[in-house]
Design a protein that fits this description.
Length: about 300
């Protein structure tokens, strides 16, 4: 049997009109109703909003969590005999992975995501910029020598994201050659020590949520080693808001664990694009709507 990993996208994969084909599905309707009771607004309605509003962290993260969780639930039902061997999610996507692994239920996960999105949308210090084409060893050394900036996302060998103060990021960019730089539209320096205050406030809610032993091993962003241990998964999630997204290493771990197929469950195709660069021999599949879901159903 093919050894499969499921991955779940994070902020940046959203687009206006996503998930609208799910509106009439009974399971999705139930989840949308639950989500509206928790969020106080309609996920399907927000998914039809202009890109500017949908890209607001306050709305993006809950929408992605809800849609990815629904698609994962439907995929589990249709492929009961082909359950994934491993789960991983990019930043916000890690919450979907933990929900799918039954570490917490849909509602508990959404309450966490709602608060996470509120705190991150309120962050105002710092910024983020994606870099493509650079000398990794040189860049890493310069970042380590510069205060108030970190490598926040290590997506693949040729793409990383810096997070920190604008001054610190400018210092790094002035000292290294980069083929392309793309400023990210974010409210703050996510996945960096500048999120420490927000992370401390979020931890109060996280500590109140009971985590269960995972039914499927999960690779965390800050520690890309699979585990089912509830205390370890929670401790890693506590560190996630200020810690790095080590996605390249997650891909390398897929290689070491003999993963033959990676299915990206959720809007967009960002993660399969990243995985392709780290796992060139792995089959890649996207489940982003009902049509693609039905295409891989047995």
């Amino acid at each position: 049997m093919t050894k499969i990993a499921w991955v779940f996208p994070g902020q940046g994969s959203q687009f206006s009109g996503m998930g609208l084909d799910l509106i009439d599905h009974p399971i999705a309707q139930d989840r949308f109703t639950q989500a509206q009771e928790i969020l106080g607004w309609s996920v399907p309605h927000l998914c039809q909003a202009a890109e500017e509003k949908l890209s607001n962290t306050l709305y993006t993260q809950p929408c992605l969590y809800v849609l990815s969780s629904i698609l994962a639930e439907l995929l589990l039902q249709s492929r009961a005999e082909a359950a994934p061997a491993l789960l991983a999610g990019h930043s916000l996507g890690e919450y979907v992975a933990l929900n799918v692994a039954q570490v917490f239920n849909f509602e508990a996960g959404l309450r966490l995501v709602k608060r996470r999105a509120e705190l991150m949308s309120q962050a105002s210090e710092g910024t983020m910029v994606a870099l493509i084409g650079f000398n990794r060893e040189q860049l890493t050394e310069i970042v380590h020598q510069t205060q108030n900036v970190v490598l926040a996302n290590d997506n693949h060998e040729g793409q990383v994201v810096l997070s920190g103060t604008q001054e610190a990021i400018d210092t790094v960019l002035a000292a290294t050659k980069v083929k392309r730089k793309v400023p990210l539209s974010v409210s703050g320096a996510f996945h960096s020590p500048l999120m420490t205050a927000a992370a401390a406030e979020f931890k109060e809610l996280l500590d109140s949520v009971a985590f269960q032993t995972a039914k499927i091993p999960v690779l965390s962003n800050v520690e890309p080693q699979p585990t089912c241990e509830a205390p370890l998964l929670k401790e890693r999630l506590v560190r996630q808001m200020t810690g790095p997204v080590r996605w390249r290493e997650i891909g390398l771990e897929f290689n070491r664990r003999g993963i033959e197929q990676v299915i990206e469950v959720g809007p967009g195709k960002v993660l399969t694009g990243l995985i392709k660069r780290t796992c060139p021999g792995v089959a890649l599949t996207n489940v982003s709507d009902l049509e693609s879901l039905q295409a891989i159903a047995p």
